[in-house]
Structures are given as C-alpha cells and as structure tokens.
Write a structure and sequence with these properties.
By secondary structure, this protein is α+β, with helices and mostly antiparallel strands. It has 18 helices and 28 strands. The strands form eight sheets. It has a six-stranded antiparallel sheet with strand order 1-2-3-4-5-6, with no helix packed on it. Strands 27-26-23-24-25-28 form a six-stranded mixed sheet. Strands 19-20-21-22 form a four-stranded antiparallel sheet. Strand 17 (420-423) and strand 18 form a beta hairpin. Helix 11 packs antiparallel against helix 14 (573-586) and helix 12 (518-534) runs parallel beside helix 14. The longest helix has 19 residues, at 644-662. 37% of the residues are buried.
Length: 770
C-alpha cells in the first residue's frame, strides 16, 4: 500500500510552527578586581548545574519540555513570555516575524528560546552582574556554556561599557531584518510610549496612543514606510499563522466536493468514457490502493490512460477528471513562487545546499471517501465486460492538485522558509553556515516524518552531522540538479537531460513522417523558453518563433472557443527554421555565472549611459548622458511616422545605437513617455520579459540588451509623463529627412529617482511562499 499523508498532522505543523561587531581590545570589566570572564559565577544557574551533575535534576524531552523544566527550576513564570521578531540576536538567521524568539524573565533570570534553536540564559550574579549562557536542547544532556559573544552588544555602548541587559526598539521589515538606518532606541522608563516596542509583539488596549509594536516596516528609496495603527490595541495572539488558511483550503479540496460544480443528476455507467488500462494494469493500481471497485451512484468521472515515461522506462497512470471544466477555480489555493533568478540568487556564496524529491507525491494525498464518487473510471475486464472503479488518491490531472500539493510542501518547509526553495515535490535547502544547514535539514526530515510524507532515497539521509555537512558541501561544489538546472559551484546551465530532450524533440520535428500537433509544438516552444532563460539568452531573439506560437495557441474553433491541441497542423518551413535556430543557440549550453539580484538604480551615478528620448511624427530627439558628458541628438524620419507605437521604440533604439558607438553601454537606462517600453522590459528579478510580439518594441529590446551580460549590468527603462519629458520640445521641432545632429547639451540632467520604474519592487509574497 502507498504511504498516506496525515492531513491532520499537517494542519498541526502550521499552528506549531543584526550583524554584531566584536568588541576590540580588553574591556575594563575583564581586568582586576572584576575579572569578569575569569571569575567563577555564584548565580542561580550554578545551582542548576550542580543538581544536573549530581543527577538530582534531568532536563530531557523535546526542546519545549526542556525549556519548561528550566523555567520551573529558575522560578521564571511562563506568563512572562515576550516575543521578538527582529534579527537582533546571535540566532538571527532563525528569527522571522512568523518564527519569533521567545523571552521569559524574572527579577534575576532571563531565558530566550527559538524552537529548534539554542536556549539562551542570562542570570544576575551578585558580584559580576549578568552572566550569559547558551545550550543546545537537542544535544542529549544539556551543557551550559558561558557565551561571551553576547557581550558584543550586552557589554558595549548600549549598556555604558559594562555587562547589562536591555530592551531595544528597532523598526523591522517582513524578513525580520532591522532597518537600522532609521535608528533604534534602548528602552527604559524615560522612553516615550510612541517610541517603544518596534520589533516586538505587543498585546493590550491603550486607547488612541500608538506604539511601534506588531507592525512591519519598509525602506522605500530611503524613506521609512510603516503604519503604526495596524499594530494598535491588539488582543491575544492568534493561534495560527497566515499559512493556516491556505492549508485549510487545500484540505477542503480533498475532503469536500462543495466547489466541484457538480449540479447534474447521477450518471449512467455508459456515460463514463472508457479508460485505456489493461486488466493487468488495473490489478497493479488496485494493489497499490490507487483504485477501489465502485458500486453505487456515479456523480462524475475521470478518463485515464498509461503515459510512457521514457527516462524511467515505465508507464505513469494519468487521469483527467471531468470536473476540471466545472470547478470554482477562484477558490483554489493560490500559488506564488520566487522567480528563477531569485532562486539562483539565494545560492550565491552559500556554503551548503541539497535537494529532496518527494516520492509519488500526489499518490500520498488521499481523497476523502465522500468525494471519490466524483472520480469514477470505466475499464474493460478480462471477460470483456465493463468494470467501474473510483480513485482514492489525488489525481495529478485535476486542476486543484498542484495547489493542494504545493501547500503541503509549504507547510512542511514553514520553519525553514529562509533556507528553502520549493516547487511542488522538489525542495532545495541552501545555507551559509553549518549550524543553519543542519537545522534546516533535520527540521525538514522531522516534519516529513511527522506528516508521513515519503522522500526518495530517505535512507541515505540517516547521517550524523559530519555526513550531512559533507553531503551539503559536495552538492554545493556540484554538479547539482534542481528544477532542470545544473549548478556547478558559482555557475549554472541546463541539465544534460533537458539538452538531450530538446535536441531529440527538434529531430522529431525535422522527420517528414512526424505528425505535428499544437500540443507538440507548444511543448518544444515551452522547453525553449525555459532553457533559454537558464543560460541568459533573451526571448527577444525568438521573436518570429513566439509570434508563430501565439497564433497557433489561439482558439482553433470559433464555435467552441477552444484550442484543438491534438489536431494535426502543418508548420511553415520558416517556423521550422526558427525552431532550428533557437535550439542551435541553446544546445551549446555554455554555463553562466550565478549573480545576486541587480535592482534598478536609485540615482544617475548608478548608470554609465542614460538616454532620455522622445519621438514625433517627423523625427526624434534625445539627451544622452555618457561618462564623457551630455549630448543632444536630433534626427528626422525618412518619411512621416504617424503612430507612436512605431516611432517611440525606433527613436529609443536609434539613440542607443549612437550611444554604443561612443562607449560600451555598461549600466544603461532609457527614459521615455511611451509606457509600453517600460512595462514590456525585462524584470530585474525574473528576466522573463523584455520581449514583445510587436516588431517595433522587440527591435528596441534587442538593441537595449544585445549580447551583453545581463547578470552583471543594469538595463532599465523608466517612464516619465510627456509634459515632464525634456526631449519632448526638441522632438517636435525636428523636420522630416533631417540628418542626425549631435551637440553638447547644457542642461541639468534629471535624476532617475524622479522617474517611474514599473518593476522597481519585487512581488510581495508571504514568507512561506518559497
């Protein structure tokens, strides 16, 4: 029988779940007569350690149970709990708004704890003052270690150069990073109410006065953006995370048919289409528990067939349910992923990485008995008679399957979201240091076990810490495969498997006897788009091929408004030539460097070349800022160009061409009042755009990007209102057939910060949407 995902356990998983500058030189408190680090403490923890050594006290169980025992031993009330979500602890990598650090305190003791992390203890010694310890509750017998790393903050300027404890108020962003450029405050009795608790969760009613707790701030171009009202007068903490709602929704789709759209009477067996499974294949599906015999009413059906998997030399059972056409789609789990460039940037400079692949993932997600009669199939038995069965597991072909499976994955990876990258049944873990990597890997494996999800080659992860770190190091060095991309240290390229698939697909298209369908053509074009992105080949190179695809993917039946994907089509020789050219560009598969993300610049100093351009029916004008100075360009068209959709892209293209003759473009920006140029550009965080099916726009993008390395150079298009475009007046005074003229420009060049970049910000996603 197949493994079953424990959905109830998955729901439980959802619910449960600053850089320090070292002190320099010898501090005065380390010198006699104090000798802080050399003196044996006589604090409350010394008594605890004596009882541990004598066997009179045992700290055992889970991390939570150990912390509870320690709080009782130190006489710290659980009700003293505080939750801080700013990364202002030495465990900063684990702290996030959805994974805060808990603090408990009394007059003489403080305990800090992060689930799956270390426990921090501070006690007040009668002679030495605060003593700082840490221990690992997952290490078997807890061993308290004096941790003087804490003194870099707790022994420095914040506490007047002597060891001390303090509370800090600092604005914090959605990732938990403190926005230190906007200052921070050490809170005491003198601190105004309005300045307190930034980076902390705060409950209680306080009228109209506002504090800084409970809210996330943003740094937008150097300006602090925060709404303090959102954090005011907050009641008791909620017992769930933002992921609980998507998790409940995912569970609903496999436990209720309320949104299946079934509004018809029960069907007759003859209305169920025949699935193409042999009796032997049906027996295998029965043995695995994927099918059970069906009797009774038929509410809806699925059509199935065995799909060959050439790479694995086996057949995969495919089922397409009829309810795909009636589902209430806007109630499905919504999927939002990081872009592929964002996934790559996560690995830049990392020390460790690894990949996990769930085994037969959809088959691990069980359909509730009450919905199975919506997934009935009909086959022929050995006696030639009809046989009815119903599915017991989530069929990959139903529209909500991907959403359900992805939410399960997000739930499992919630505590390690800052280290994980996922796509349905694939999970990559990346970390900069050994502590974080071990935490992420072990947490992931534990949570998979908790919900009964199986992983391919799970037994190979029965390793000690050294083995896990060695495996993570080897995968980081490479070759390492994730989502069809091969990582080799600090470079990336397409997997050899994908290159082989692409070249074989092209050979099939070149074979005269091949029956070409829209589905086959869409498949090879999709592979070209995906693989070209991996090796930084811009889509603007495939203009005519993508134009052909857009036409072939249009509805083929006016009557039904659908696309006849499996109907034979005939490709023009020019389209086949475009396919051959595209594969020829990708097949060499030259590796490209992993790069950090490169957002649009915030000032003119971020660019080597800036073109501010405008066009009219008669010609165009531009102000071009180069390293050698600023120039005004004017040029007339050969004949009037009445449509701005043609003239504006050509004007920007021609101005860039002139700039290239003067210097390498380097970091380049174009400023235009033609919005299509700005909205069609390559997104800096995904690189999927920078293409248009309009020839004039695509011609501009080809000139803007060219063959330059887009991983290391900015190429941005800013938008400016026409009335603010300083090139507008000169462009209107140009005459038709006027030759190109260039002269130094005596203008104050506007700063790019005064213009609009439509993709200046990355998409906002929940922290768990990795």
């Amino acid at each position: 029988m197949m493994q079953r995902l424990k959905f109830a356990a998955m729901t439980a998983l959802v619910v449960l779940t600053p850089n320090v500058i070292p002190a320099q030189g010898t501090e005065t408190y380390e010198q006699p007569p104090i000798s802080y680090s050399a003196t044996q403490p006589r604090d409350a923890l010394a008594q605890v350690q004596t009882r541990l050594a004598a066997g009179k006290l045992k700290l055992t169980g889970s991390g939570k149970e150990i912390v509870q025992s320690l709080l009782r031993e130190l006489h710290i009330p659980v009700e003293s709990q505080l939750l801080g979500f700013s990364k202002t602890s030495f465990q900063r990598q684990r702290i996030r708004p959805d994974h805060p650090r808990a603090l408990y305190f009394s007059d003489t003791c403080y305990v800090g704890w992060l689930p799956s992390g270390l426990v921090e203890v501070t006690t007040i010694d009668p002679q030495l003052g605060p003593i700082f310890y840490s221990f690992d509750p997952n290490a078997g017998t807890p061993k308290f270690v004096r941790d003087n790393e804490c003194l870099s903050c707790h022994g420095g300027n914040f506490v007047r150069g002597i060891p001390g404890v303090f509370v800090r108020s600092v604005f914090t962003d959605a990732a938990g990073e403190p926005l230190l450029r906007f200052g921070s405050e050490v809170v005491d009795f003198r601190t105004p109410f309005t300045n307190r608790w930034a980076g902390w969760y705060v409950t209680g009613k306080h009228g109209t006065a506002l504090h800084r707790g409970n809210v996330l701030a943003q740094d937008k171009k150097g300006e602090l953006v925060v709404d303090l009202k959102r954090g005011a007068n907050v009641g008791a903490p909620r017992s769930h995370t933002p992921l609980q709602e998507p998790a409940k929704l995912a569970r609903k789709w496999v436990e209720s048919d309320a949104d299946y759209g079934i509004d018809w009477a029960p069907l007759a067996a003859a209305q169920v289409p025949l699935s193409r499974y042999t009796p032997d294949q049906v027996d295998i599906l029965l043995d695995f528990g994927k099918l059970v015999p069906h009797t009774g009413a038929i509410r809806s059906f699925a059509k199935g067939w065995p799909q060959p998997q050439a790479a694995k030399r086996r057949l995969r059972p495919i089922f397409e349910p009829f309810v795909n056409g009636t589902l209430v789609s806007d109630r499905m789990p919504q999927l939002r992923y990081p872009s592929r460039l964002e996934r790559r940037a996560q690995a830049v400079g990392a020390a460790f990485q690894c990949e996990f692949d769930f085994s037969a993932y959809y088959d691990q997600i069980e359909l509730a008995a009450c919905v199975r009669d919506a997934f009935v199939i009909r086959t022929k038995g050995r006696d030639g008679r009809d046989a009815l069965f119903r599915l017991t597991r989530l069929p990959m072909g139903v529209c909500f399957a991907v959403g359900v499976a992805q939410v399960v994955t997000w739930t499992i990876t919630l505590p390690i979201a800052s280290f994980a990258s996922t796509c349905i049944d694939n999970v990559r873990i990346v970390a900069d240091n050994a502590t974080d990597f071990l935490f992420a890997v072990r947490t992931f494996l534990e949570r998979c076990d908790a919900v009964n999800v199986t992983i391919n080659d799970r037994e190979t992860w029965a390793l000690d810490d050294a083995g896990i770190l060695q495996r993570g190091h080897n995968d980081r060095v490479g070759p390492f495969l994730f989502l069809g991309e091969e990582y080799n240290g600090e470079t990336i390229r397409n997997s050899e498997k994908n290159v082989t698939n692409l070249t074989q697909a092209l050979a099939l298209f070149q074979e005269p006897s091949t029956v070409i369908t829209r589905r086959r053509f869409a498949a090879i074009v999709g592979l070209i788009v995906y693989m070209s992105h991996t090796v930084n080949i811009g889509l603007w190179r495939f203009f005519s091929l993508l134009r052909a695809y857009s036409r072939l993917a249009s509805p083929s039946s006016v009557e039904h408004g659908d696309v006849l994907w499996d109907a034979p089509i005939e490709l023009y020789p020019t389209v086949l030539a475009d396919l051959t050219q595209a594969v020829g560009l990708i097949a060499p598969n030259a590796p490209v460097a992993l790069r950090p993300l490169l957002p649009p610049g915030r000032s003119n100093d971020d660019y080597d070349t800036i073109v501010l351009v405008d066009a009219s029916a008669a010609g165009w004008a531009a102000f071009v800022r180069l390293r050698t100075g600023t120039f005004e360009l004017r040029c007339g068209w050969h004949e009037e160009m009445l449509h701005s959709a043609h003239s504006e892209p050509y004007a920007a293209r021609d101005a860039l061409q002139w700039a290239r003759t003067q210097q390498p473009l380097g970091h380049a920006a174009v400023v235009t009042d033609h919005q299509a140029l700005a909205t069609g550009q390559r997104r800096w965080h995904s690189a999927y755009a920078g293409f248009s099916s309009a020839f004039h726009l695509n011609d501009f993008f080809a000139e803007l990007y060219g063959a330059d390395d887009l991983g290391s150079t900015r190429r941005d298009v800013f938008f400016v209102d026409g009335v603010r475009n300083v090139a507008d007046g000169p462009s209107r005074s140009v005459g038709v057939r006027e030759s190109l003229s260039v002269r130094p420009a005596n203008i104050v060049f506007p700063d790019v910060s005064s213009f609009v970049h439509p993709f200046a910000s990355r998409e906002v996603r929940e922290v768990w949407q990795v």
